[in-house]
Amino acid sequence: MQFELRTQVIEPKRKTFTNLVERYGDRPASRYEEGSIDIQCVENFHYKPLYSADKDHFDPDYTAFTLTDPYSFTDPRQLYYAPYVQSRAAMGEAFAKSIDYVESRGLMQKLPGGWDGIVGEILIPLRHWEAGAELVHIEGSRWAWGTTIDQCCTFAAFDRIGNAQSISRIGIVYGEGHDGALAEAKERWMGDAALQGLRRLIEELLVEHDYGKALIALDLADQLLYPLMYSHLDEAALTGGAGAYSLLAQHYANWFSDQRRWVDALVAAWLGDPTHGEANKDAANEVVGRRWNQIVEAVSDLAAAVDARVDAGAVANVEASAAALAERLTAAGLTVPGGK
Amino acid sequence: MTVPAQKPARKLSMKQRYTALTHDLDWTPTYVKEEEVFPFTTFEGIKVHDWSKWDDPFRLTVEAYNKYQAEKDRRLYAVLDGFAQSQGQLGLTEARYMNAMKIFLQGIPVHEYNAHRNFSYLARYANGPGARFAALCQSLDELRHAQTEIHTLSHYNKYFDGMHDWHKWTDRVWYLSVPKSFFEDAQTAGPFEWLIAIGFSFEYLLTNLLFVPFMSGAAFNGDLPTMTFGFSAQSDESRHMTLGLEAIKFMLEQDEDNLPIVQDWLDKWFWRGYRLISLVAGMMDYMLPKRVMSWKEAFELYFEEQMLNGLFKDLEYYGIRPPRHVDWAIGEKEILSHQVYWILYQYSHAAAFTTTIPNAEDQEWLEKAYPETWPIYKQVVWDKAQRVMDAGGRYFNPGLPQLCTVCQIPMGFTEPGDPLTQCQRQTVYEGERYDFCSDGCQWIFEREPTKYRQSWLPVHQIFQGNCGGPTLPDVAAWYGLQPGDGAEYLGSPDHQAWLEWHGQTTKEA
After folding, report:
1. Position A86 pLDDT exceeds 70
2. Contact B495, B489 (CB under 8 A)
3. For B467-489, how does the pLDDT look when each residue is reduced to its tens digit (9 = 90+)?
4. Which of A56, B59, B341, B395 is the most buried (most CB within 10 A)?
5. Looking at the predicted complex, does its ipTM rise above 0.90?
6. Does residue B76 fall inside a structural domain?
7. Count of domains forming chain B
8. Single pTM value for the model
9. How many other CB atoms are found less than 10 A from the CB of residue B504?
């Protein structure tokens, strides 16, 4: 049975805030829009920062990448805080189920020979890569011009430290409840030749204070590292009897496809900007030119260490990923250095 | 139940596990110089010997954070949706209550947002991983508060004036330069001063004085969404208070040379914050149809009792003394709200809120709350304003007020112990004269004249021709004010709509 519910209806005087009406027309706005568009102050700043006398505390010049209208970029996921934490709570719950299962069945201790080494000596040290990536992303949270870019960087930073923590949990399960595997992984991060390319890269990005350039360089590396570690090796683990690896890797692959959506959109906005597109392209080319070989070598070194433990075709995977990425960059009008 | 054959030695304790998941992620860079990775933590003169001493009592992980916060937001947004669907604004005490929320929307979310941005600064540049992670969580919380506040008040914006263009107002309108200059002062300082300014002084010392009037005011006046937001933010705030306290203790424990620097910042930021929340004093005594408590009572409870007699007793151990100029603040508690509201009343034709003469019921309450001082203000101010109203007019000050160079509030405060003599202090710096409302603001200027001489003072800017033109309509247009946003409440579009919704008509508006 249906009943008729009567409520007092009052015509609203306006549909949303004036800035959104001016921008999008007289229509109701989404919560993403009301909470993300034009939030950052843009004019009449009072004091120059003590830490940066030549720029304002909010200033478009903290990066070489400029948007004519900073809000021409919006998050394709439309994430503001509430849906962000809700989506991450769901991801966290899914990961917890997997790691609990792996732990309760002792699957980590049943990894076949070479896979044991991949987890203990390659995957677990990468928690430090994630921790470094957090610091790269949080730069954007502080220095971005405009809330929509800041917000994506903020969430990405929190995601990365979350990844670092969940990989640490894998390390604790791998160490049967102890932190010995984490301590060993850190030593490897500091000393193993296979990991030094990545460590050098992330450290260098921590002194690259143009957050846009650091973001692009980090993302180029991620675009080789993630497909290798969390998609290609997921497949290989399944066929190689390392179920635990596959169960856990899928979560990072899922996260990365979410991450791609906003990074791709932001880079596209930068390169396609009607006024600053060419200058942005120059800045991106500078990053690609300076970092490409370093990044391909760093991830290839890691892949070679994988292949030394399991014949997984890791090096070939990085080569293929790099070729495909080079093609995408070229299609976007960028110049990829020859050689690799 | 199965028990493993050989139980390994004791597993990680909760604390060890937390450390493994957080602090232990850090490493010392070797390919680049550490001081280039963290370039901003030395120039303020604060000495830190051991960042690992930064304690994080909450031991929050990302997983736990997301889970708790998701649940809290799920509940909050359910309340917001229900309130909107049921036209909840009809159940407010009166439409003029909205003025408190207009000031809130114009003056708070954007600075929560600024806090978010600057806690990201600390989340990046603090040398220790414990401090960085605590700052990262607070950065996200502050973004949450900015957005949930906007979403909470978004429904009201559809039905009331004075909210629709807060983005522009924040950057332009005269009284909003008070909070803007306050936050920008902190944002343009170094990371340690920020922690004392916002983490400690604002989030700990003055937080109850700021939030209780708004949130309890909401509860008393039928504003369910804002009250729910307040409850929902509380657990975040308790984390922030803990971080603020941790920050000051950390600095004081690291090196005794830090004490004079910290004390100086505390002196500055107490007075800066106190002047900022005087706007709240005016709001809570004059703009809430149903009052929670008076400013004076709130000041006595939340500041004198809890802070001066509580917190500062604890801080004595470190050599910290109560903030400079605190006696001046105590001496003002009976007059502060009267003076601030009178400023707001006479300039509300150029503001995005409305004001009105306290009605009979309000006056009765004011008389009880301020038996010594209310009669003075009634006689010298409100009786005159009433006579203007009775003659069919409305008193607005046609001139532009002089602003204090530091707090940027119009010069309407008085000499200590003499509520009828305006206080004015002056300092000449490099041949230019600067004016101040109080010893506190003058002292702050003289500590850092090169900073405060940069102040974007709205009145100066109008006179310099930077605000749309020389006349009030020019400036109002540049501000983005529309008819109904400001001026007198009685007969305003908000007032008329309210009467219409409740089946009454405006008497003679």
Report:
1. yes
2. yes
3. 999 999 999 999 999 999 999 99
4. B341
5. yes
6. yes
7. 1
8. 0.96
9. 10
